[in-house]
Structure formats: C-alpha cells, structure tokens
Design brief:
The complex is a heterodimer of chains A (73) and B (707). Chain A is α+β, with helices and mostly antiparallel strands. Helices cover 18% and strands 38% of the residues of chain A. Chain A is built from two helices and five strands; from the N terminus they run βαβββαβ. Chain A starts with 10 loop residues before the first strand and ends with a strand. The N and C termini of chain B lie far apart (80 Å). Classes of the chains: A alpha+beta (73), B alpha/beta (707). The interface between A and B is large, with 34 and 46 residues. β4 (57-61) of chain A pairs antiparallel with β12 of chain B, so a sheet runs across the interface.
Chain lengths: 73, 707
C-alpha cells in the first residue's frame, strides 16, 4: 500500500521507494529505505501534509511525496 | 608566516549548530556572501589563528541547487576564492543518530581531519537514548566530544581539540557497493575528475554536479552518465537507492552496539503536538498566536516608533538652533543636515522597533521548534499560490512591515520559493499604508452602514487589505511559472523535538538581524533620503524667499507667521523638481482621476509612502503637521480648472488601490536587494508593482466613475 493511503496511527515496513529524481533521492537520504519501519502519526487540518515517524524521528511530507513510498503493513 | 586554520562546521538543521557556533565564536561573527548565490557566508574566530566557517544545515551532500552546490564545493576545495577547510567539525543530535550520520559518512569520505560533537545529549537521555561514546567514537573512526551547547557543557574540551592540530584524516570503513563502485571509477577516469565529484555526478540525477560536468564536457558527459545509470538500473536498483542503503546499513551495524534505547515513555513533544497540530485545537492555537504577534507589534512598536520620531525631531530642532543668527541660517546646508541627513537617518532607525519585535517572535518560535508546525498547518493553503507552508510567517509578518517579513524569508530553504515570497511580500498591506487608507476613507467614503450595522468606511478600509492578497495569488503563480527553472520543490520537512528557546541564541539572532539592517540597508535608505531631499529642495529660489520675508515683516500675530511659513513651504515645493515633474506627468495620471498635486504627492511618496500625507499638507499650504480635518476640508474643496471637484469617491479609491499595490518604500527595496543579492530583483519588484498599481488605479477610477 502507498504511504499516502495509510490510515493514521498505522504503518509498516518499506518495500519500495520510487527514487524519481530529487524528491525520491531526498526521501532516501531522510531514511526511507527498504526495510525501515514507518508509521503515520497524523494528518494536517486541511488534509495535507501528513506527519510520519521514521528512523526514530518525526517528519512531515505531502501526500504526493508519500505516494512514492510503498509499504507492507 | 602563520596560516589561519579553517574549520568548517557542518550538520543537520535543528541540531543546535547555531548555538554551538555562537558559543565558539561569540560576537566575532561576520556575515558575508558567496558570489552568485543567496546563501550567507557565516564566519567567526575561535582564536587569532583558527577561523570557523558555519555551513548551512544540510542532510546530505547531494546538491541540486546553486546554494547547495556552494557548500559542497567549499568542502571539496572547489569553491572560488575559498580555501579547502583544514578541519571539519560535524555536529550531530544524539537523539537522531541514524539520519544525522548520513551526511557524516559522506564528509568522512573527503579525507579531511574531522571531529564530531555529539550534541543535545541531555534531551536524548530524557527520551531514553544512551550512547557509549568511546565505542561510538571507535566505530566511527573519529574523535567524538559530548556537548550540551545551550548549557555550555563540553565546550572547553571541544575548543581545546579545535586548537590542537593533531587530528588524523579519517579512513571510512565502508565502500561503494558494486556495480556503483565500478561506474563511479569509470566516470572519474573518463572525465578526469576525482572520485567524490564523479560519485555525485552519477548519483544525483539532475543535480549540480551533473550539470557542471555536462557544461564542461557536453553531450558526451550526458550520454555517459545516462548509460551508466541505465546499467545500474538494469540490475533492479537505482544509484541513489544503492547509496542510501549502503550508508544506512553501515550506520546501523556500526552504532547499534553502542546506543541503547530505553522505553519510549511519555514523549513531551508528542503530547504537545497532540494539541498544537490537532485538527481543531492546533488551528485555534495557531490563529491566536498569529493574532498575539500582530497585536504586540502594533502595541509595542508604535510608542517606540513615536519615541524615535520625537528624538529625531528634537535633534533636528537642536541642529536648527545652532544655525540661528548665523549667516547660514535658513540656507541649504541647514536644510541638508536637518531635512536630509537627520530626517533620513531617522527614517532608517524608525523601522527598528518593528524589526526587533518581529524577529524576537520569529527567533523564539524557530528555536523552540514551532515554526515547522506553522509550516505544516499552512502548507495546503499556500499551495494555492504555488508556495509552501514555509512562506506563511514571512508573508503574515509583512502585514505589519515588509522589511522584517522579507528578512524572515531566510527560513525558506527552496531558493525559488524564497524569491517569490520576497517579491510578493510587499503586496501585503503594511502599517505605513494605514494613515493613507484612514485619511481617504474618512474624507471621501460616506459614513453609512450597510444592512444596518456594517460601517461602509470600515468595509472599504478592510477591502484594501484584500486587494493586496487577491493580487498576490495570481502574481505568485505567474512568477513561479516564469522562474520555474528545474525540478519542483519538496516539502519533506523534519518536525524537531520541542525545546526551550535559548536566550543567547535568540538574542544573538535578533542582534545580527538589526546589525545587518542598519549597516547594509541603512546606508542605501540614507542615500535615497538625501536624493529625495535634493529633489524637493532645488531649485530653491531666493526671490520667493525674499517675497515671504517681506510678508513676515508685516505680520502681526504668531498665527500669521505660521500661515506665512506654510505658504512659503508650499510654494517652494511646487517649484521644486518634484513639483515640476508632477506637472509634467499630469497627463499620465489624469486617467486615474488625479491632478498634478496628487501626482506630485504620490511621486514624493515613492521612497516612503506615509510621506504623502505631509506632502499634500505642504502642497495645500497647511504646513507639515496638523489636524486631519483641515486637510480633509482642503481636499474636498480642491477643484480642476473647470470647477469639477478633484476628489470624488472613485478618485479616493483609485489612490488607495495604487497605494495597496505599489512598492513605495526605499527601505523595502534596499532589503530586497540585500536578501536577493542583486539589484535586478529589487528593480523588478519595484517596476512590476508600480505597473500593477497604475493599472489597478486606472481600472478603479474608470470603473468607479462609470458606476
């Protein structure tokens, strides 16, 4: 399932990251690598962006960016 | 000859790097710039022969913009005019080791002696993270110092190590995986570049290194890189994926034995975020906070600004009194000193209260970690204009004054977004426009209520604010399309743990902002003030003066004398260069419904919009200061040669719309120049807004008088 579709308070292990250009590379650098655990913490009041927990820290990203990450719950 | 040792300080954002840098360099900090980019060059002295250079916070050495490229080039010794650093100081956050070490593994490959400062250990310990420093240091292969920068712990030891020259070059215990290693070596050999540059050119698709290689070697390079990447991708991996995996895998296995994580427990940051970015409560707290900031500026800045105004008036009177009785009394030198230099300096310093208060708020919010939350909450809204949540606070600040608003855009990482925010910020109606709106609304908008309770005057006043916002949205969109260079910006943003803002860090930031404003922008504003003075003074006819002197001899009362003074000022202004230009451009402003007096007053207010009120007063022989009612009466009575009144509702509205959209503030132009490092953008901002203002005023008057 895509990270952008993951319900809040849930998560999983990353199986794939679309390393498309700059955004994909940025995600990889920030720790979105295969096998890492990621969890959706909350969604912003206006529906976007979302807050996730990864590599022991918290990060916000837009749903369009989160859709590049494929996870297995 | 002793060579100054250069130490480059590097690390992720939000690790307390600024606090540590301040602790090491204190007030010896200097801010300069690298040619061609907007990132600041921040240096400071640890001692007479050790210079520290603070690099912008970064998560990785993959460069995709000129700003990022400067950092990487500097480390690699390829930045023009900058010597390669002799020593690197990497600052990492003890609570966030994995991500922090990513860029550290990259810099360790550069072969420069490196020290690591493990910062914020106190916060880490509170969240259950304990690091075995000795083991960690051995695994990393470099000396590690424990610090708590905001409590000045561990600083002395770090200083000693920085002053001591014997730190060995690091030897990375990891290496590029195949097939990446092979392709990097191939690129390095084919194009005769070093391994580091080759790796960045290959891995960072559409990045700065690739662009540079293509620029130097043309399509051969483009093809070679593409083919190399395709070969790697054929194996099911991307170069960037291979790099990330290699680094994180090494980091995990190297530090896992030396880091213990206690139970997660109740995390303060998470609890606070439960409220502060809650769907409902978060929005309420945010709106309340913005309202508080706004009100505070109006409350606290206003009396301070009045105080500065009074101080400079007093100074002006003092200087005038020195001329009394001398041959130079009432002459050009006196006017230059009082109306040019002193008034000009005053017009610079009068911005300080607003800048100080706003920067104080911004520095506190940033240091405690709330700024990221503000961007998080506002991002969706700002995407309507093509910007991101990071632009919210600079734009909102501009409603009080665009100067601190433009300076606050430094928090926007993406250079295009920052530029667009800077160019659009002056459209947010600032507090200097209020006297204009207030006077014209009171004088020319009927004092009626709509639907029985909505005051029309209040509505018109408020709608002027919306004019700016409504115009800003399409302008930002268009600018984004036109300056679209390159890949779209990302909003991947860390939400750092909340922490108590450090007093010293905050005050230092405010101080540096003020110092820069006064020194850099201040000199430009002063120069503009003197030019304006000259344009309203010359040619100063002595015959006109003599005529009024004669009247003064015949005067009987102090009121008569005052009236004569006012009439004389009026005539001088009308004869000045400004006055003449006002008459010349009258045909151009007539479609806006303006006569030459309005045209002249608007021209005179280009350096500082609030000047229009006093300029109109002088033009109508009312002297510089006085009651609003007298000016209102004069305006209402003002007519064209054929007897039609000049000031209709449509004309008043067209003037207000002009002021809403025009960049009539030399100080803002100066600050835009400073922040964009080019006169080109400052000039562009001035010109596009003047054009918009003209068209807006034109449309308003034409439609208004037709309705």
């Amino acid at each position: 399932m895509k990270l952008s579709e993951c319900p809040i308070r849930q998560g999983g292990k990353i199986v794939r990251v679309e390393a498309v250009g700059r955004i994909g590379q940025r995600l990889l650098e920030m720790g979105f690598i295969e096998g890492a655990d990621v969890r959706v913490v909350r969604v912003a009041p206006l529906g976007d962006p979302i807050e996730v927990e990864i590599q022991h820290y918290h990060l916000s990203l837009r749903k369009s960016e989160a859709s590049l990450v494929e996870i297995r719950p | 000859m002793l060579r100054v040792r250069r130490v480059a300080v590097i690390g992720n954002p939000n690790v307390g790097k600024t606090t540590l840098f301040n602790a090491l360099t204190g007030l010896s900090q200097q801010v300069g710039n690298y040619p061609g980019v907007t990132v600041e060059k921040k240096t400071g002295l640890l001692s007479d022969d050790v210079e520290l250079i603070d690099l912008p916070g970064t998560y990785s050495l993959a460069a995709h913009s000129p700003d990022q490229k400067v950092v990487v080039n500097l480390l690699d010794g390829r930045q023009e005019g900058e010597r390669r650093p002799d020593l690197l100081l990497a600052i990492i956050d003890a609570a966030n080791l994995h991500r922090n070490l990513y860029v550290v593994t990259q810099i360790l490959e550069l072969g420069i002696p490196t020290l690591v400062a493990l910062n914020m250990v106190d916060a880490a310990e509170k969240s259950g993270v304990k690091v075995d420093v000795a083991g960690f240091s051995k695994a990393l292969g470099v000396p590690v110092f424990v610090t708590v920068a905001n409590k000045s712990e561990g600083i002395d030891e770090l200083k000693r190590a920085l002053l001591n020259p014997s730190v060995p070059a690091p030897r990375p215990a990891w290496s590029w995986p195949e097939p990446l290693a092979r392709e990097i070596a191939q690129v390095a050999k084919t194009f005769e570049v070093d391994g580091f540059f080759a790796s960045r050119a290959l891995i960072d698709e559409e990045g700065s290194a690739e662009a540079e290689l293509i620029e130097r070697r043309g399509d051969v390079a483009r093809t070679a890189l593409k083919e190399a990447r395709d070969r790697i991708k054929a194996g099911g991996q991307t170069p960037a994926g291979l790099e990330a995996r290699m680094r994180y895998a090494w980091i995990e296995q190297a530090i896992a034995p030396h880091v213990s994580r206690g139970p997660a427990g109740t995390n303060f940051t998470q609890k606070l975020d439960g409220i502060l970015i809650h769907r409902l409560w978060g929005t309420i707290v945010f709106a309340a906070l913005m309202a508080v900031i706004f009100m505070s500026i109006f409350q606290w800045a206003a009396p301070l600004m009045d105080g500065i105004d009074m101080a400079f008036s007093w100074l002006g009177d003092l200087v005038r009194s020195l001329f009394v009785g001398s041959a130079a009394e009432g002459g050009m030198l006196e006017s230059l000193l009082v109306d040019g230099v002193i008034a000009g300096t005053g017009s610079v310093l009068i911005f300080l209260p607003q800048i100080m208060i706003l920067f104080l708020f911004i520095a506190v919010l940033e240091d405690c970690g709330y700024m990221a939350r503000a961007a998080f909450l506002m991002d969706r809204l700002l995407r309507f204009c093509g910007l991101s949540g990071h632009s919210f606070i600079p734009l909102m600040s501009s409603f009080t004054c665009a100067i601190p608003g433009v300076m606050a855009t430094r928090t926007i990482a993406d250079p295009r977004d920052r530029l667009i925010t800077i160019l659009v910020a002056p459209l947010m109606s600032c507090s200097a426009r209020i006297p204009v709106y207030a006077m014209l609304t009171a004088a020319f908008v009927p004092a009626v209520t709509l639907a029985g309770f909505l005051p029309l005057q209040g509505l018109v006043f408020a709608s002027m604010y919306f004019v700016g916002i409504l115009v800003a949205v399409p302008v930002a969109w268009i600018l984004k399309k036109r300056i679209a260079r390159g890949s779209p910006s990302t909003f991947v943003m860390e939400l750092p743990s909340y922490k108590w803002p450090g007093t010293r860090t905050v005050l230092m930031r405010v101080w540096l902002a003020i110092r820069e404003f006064v020194v850099r922008a201040g000199t430009i504003i002063l120069a503009i003030s003197i030019v304006i003075w000259a344009l309203s003074y010359f040619p100063h006819s002595s015959q006109v003066h003599a005529k009024y002197e004669a009247q003064r001899q015949a005067a009987k009362t102090p009121e008569d004398l005052q009236a004569i003074d006012q009439a004389e000022s009026g005539e001088h202004l009308r004869n000045s260069i400004f006055g003449r230009v006002g008459r010349i451009v009258e045909p151009a402003v007539r479609p806006l419904g303006w006569d030459w007096r309005i045209g002249m007053a608007v021209l005179a207010s280009f350096p500082a919009r609030e000047v229009i009120v006093s300029t109109l007063r002088i033009t109508y022989d009312l002297g510089e200061e006085g009651e609003d009612e007298t000016l209102t009466q004069k305006l209402q009575a003002s007519t064209w040669p054929d007897g039609r009144p000049v000031f209709t509702l449509a004309v008043a509205l067209s003037i207000m719309v002009f002021f809403a959209l025009c960049l009539q503030c030399g100080a803002t132009v100066a600050v835009i120049r400073r922040e964009t490092r080019s006169w080109k953008w400052a000039a562009f901002a001035f010109l596009y807004m003047t054009a918009l203002a003209y068209l807006g005023a034109l449309a308003t008057h034409q439609i208004g008088s037709w309705v």
